């Protein structure tokens, strides 16, 4: 896979697929992380003399122009980050786009939302050819969109002579790829979130690669139920209990430590002001200071945090995707914050994936101590699950 550094860019038009799918309300951007992540690639292309043509999707306009999903506010915000003008094209193909590009040689142009055309998600060849006609070189820096075979991530590559990965795409593939195929050991994966079904492929794939898998969040309760442990009214995916049993057995077979919470913070309702209590997991093999009854588990407890911290401390590679509890509510945030601090203290490679985990390390104030924070979301999950990402494969 070529990268931006491998290309001759002086005087050339670079079509750069970025991921500017950011939250916007009343024209104000709520979180500009994805925009900031693309800045180094944009700056390198500018420094090498390119005209940079940026293309992205935003939201779900369902294949038709909708002012609610215009990228105009992003152009204004990006100009501030770059310290230079960013021209905005009112379309992403055709004369309207080409005219703005021609008027800004050596500059930066942001095209209007790709998903204003249904042909984008349909990976239509004619639409892909129209995108390619705007430029001389194609660069994909949108790892967050790489798991979809769309016109701007896959189709366009059939109509350009040169293609390469941007700096962000390169970093994502490098860090996640090394973790999966050549990790420094011990390799510890931490998975959380609500559902086992969301991370089933990831668990199956990682059980052949990690030394320990630590599970938290509501997804832990499906595994605890599979082990015959009372889980009260906690979220359990009943149709995956047998699957959880098989994964537990597979972990034992492969010598992987599959660790589940040994205590938890429970409450009678999913509410920020619900009365809480911290109890041991009600297991015959563990002492217990209370039964979960009809309560639900909403965070891992301090004993679990200490146990997980001990395993994490010995790791040389850590991949974390998914919170340990409902960390948005202060009463159920301690588990996730504790794990975030533990990962920040690791002397090795630490990779954070998924929007909630990214938000958690930011909330814990340790984001700058992580080796790599993935912008991928669904793409990072599919990559960790062993799937081939069309947007990455298309750059080969």
Give the class from helix and strand content and strand pairing: alpha/beta
**Strand elements, count:** 17
Strand content: 15-25%
Outline type: elongated
User: What profile does the largest beta sheet have?
Assistant: 6 strands, parallel
CATH superfamily of the largest domain: Phosphoglycerate kinase, N-terminal domain
Low-confidence stretches: none
Average pLDDT for all residues: 94
| Residues in helices, as a percent range | 25-40%
CATH architecture of the largest domain: 3-Layer(aba) Sandwich
Number of discrete domains? 2
In the CATH hierarchy, the third-tier topology of the largest domain is known as Rossmann fold
Number of helices: 14
**What is the C-level CATH assignment of the largest domain?**
Alpha Beta
In the sheet with the most strands, the strands line up as 5-6-4-1-7-8
> N- to C-terminal separation?
5 Å
Instruction: Work out the radius of gyration.
Output: 23 Å
Structure description:
The chain is an alpha/beta fold and 396 residues long. It folds into 2 domains: 4-169, Rossmann fold, CATH 3.40.50.1260; 183-384, Rossmann fold (3-Layer(aba) Sandwich), CATH 3.40.50. The chain is 34% helix and 16% strand. The chain has 14 helices and 17 strands. The protein has helices spanning 33-47, 72-82, 94-102, 118-121, 125-132, 167-181, 200-206, 220-226, 241-254, 302-313, 334-344, 355-363, 378-384, 390-393, and strands at residues 13-17, 24-25, 28-29, 51-55, 87-88, 108-110, 137-140, 162-165, 187-191, 212-215, 257-259, 263-267, 277-280, 296-300, 317-321, 349-353, 372-373. It has a 6-stranded parallel sheet with strand order 5-6-4-1-7-8. A 6-stranded parallel sheet has the order 11-10-9-15-16-17, sandwiched between helices. A 3-stranded antiparallel sheet has the order 13-12-14. Helix 1 (33-47) crosses helix 2, helix 7 (200-206) runs parallel beside helix 13 (378-384) and helix 10 runs parallel beside helix 11. The radius of gyration is 23 Å and the shape is elongated. The mean pLDDT is 94.
